[in-house]
Amino acid sequence: MPDHDLAELTDVVHHAGSRRILEVSKLTLARGRHGLLLGPSGSGKTTLLHALAGLLVPDQGSLLLLGNDLRSIGDVGRDRLRADHVGIVFQQLHLIAAVSVADNLRLARRLAGKGPDEQAIMDLLARVGLADRAGTLPADLSQGERQRVAVARALVNQPSLLLADEPTSALDDANCDAVIDLLLEQADLSGVTLLVATHDRRLTARLPVLLELARPVERAA
Ligand SMILES: Nc1ncnc2c1ncn2[C@@H]1O[C@H](COP(=O)(O)OP(=O)(O)O)[C@@H](O)[C@H]1O
Ligand SMILES: [Mg+2]
């Protein structure tokens, strides 16, 4: 299906209770076109990433991922599609604290129903500069190292789309640049399209804005 856009959203609306928390008339993600989902805190960026990943089904609208209608394929179908095609670097990383760095990657492969691939895991850890940390627990790493584990884990199932949620918000300029360098470099090495959700306007110097969300209060006005 090489001609499919990676993802296409049309007239997507989502609510929390009676409150409208996400509104997107159109978003198209094309293979190889990295970019930003920009918007202030509370504008629905994380909600949209979760919808793209099939972690939630929006109340209204159409959402295609590699030509598959995320609304109609059910939870199992969404889980399968996510396992095969989407890597996520969550804002809170969500590493498994009880197991080593390498086991975090091994578990991600098992959860996706994929066989072990020690070579791929060690290659990825080497690529993000953690070859000598494979046996270390996440708690014994620096925050920057933990983030690199999360990036490696997001790539371990060879996704088509890499989603990163606020990867730079707490960082100074030098570290902000380093994180975007890492994400872009790793996305290109893996042939993955990168979408970064952020309120960090510094990133507009590094990546095109694919969609800008407004605060709900601004939408209502
Ligand atoms: N499960 C939920 N229940 C209630 N409110 C939610 C829920 N998820 C998100 N929200 C609210 O929806 C709005 C958008 O949230 P979010 O997608 O996290 O925005 P962003 O990532 O841009 O900061 C926020 O006001 C948030 O508090
Ligand atoms: Mg968010």
H/E element order: EEEHEEHEHHHEHEEH
What is the helix content? 25-40%
Gross geometry: globular
Portion of residues in beta strands equals 15-25%
Write the CATH architecture name.
3-Layer(aba) Sandwich
- Distinct ligand kinds: adenosine-5'-diphosphate, magnesium ion
Span of the ends, CA to CA: 42 Å
User: Helices and strands: which structural class?
Assistant: alpha/beta
Low-confidence stretches: none
Q: What's the gyration radius in Å?
A: 17 Å
Sketch the major β-sheet: 5 strands, parallel
By CATH, the topology is Rossmann fold
At the fourth CATH level, what is the homologous superfamily?
P-loop containing nucleotide triphosphate hydrolases
Number of separate domains: 1
Strand order of the largest sheet: 6-7-8-3-9
What's the β-strand tally?
Answer: 9
What is the name of the CATH class?
Alpha Beta
Mean residue pLDDT: 95
> How many helical stretches?
7
Question: Could you characterize the architecture of this molecule?
Answer:
This protein has helices at 45-52, 74-85, 101-111, 118-127, 143-155, 173-190, 216-220; strands at 7-16, 19-29, 35-38, 60-65, 68-69, 86-89, 161-165, 193-198, 209-212. The protein has 221 residues and is an alpha/beta fold. The chain has a single domain, classed as Rossmann fold (3-Layer(aba) Sandwich), CATH 3.40.50. The chain has a 5-stranded parallel β-sheet with strand order 6-7-8-3-9, sandwiched between helices. α3 (101-111) packs parallel to α5 and α4 packs across α5. The mean pLDDT is 95. The structure holds adenosine-5'-diphosphate and magnesium ion (MG). Magnesium ion binds next to α1.
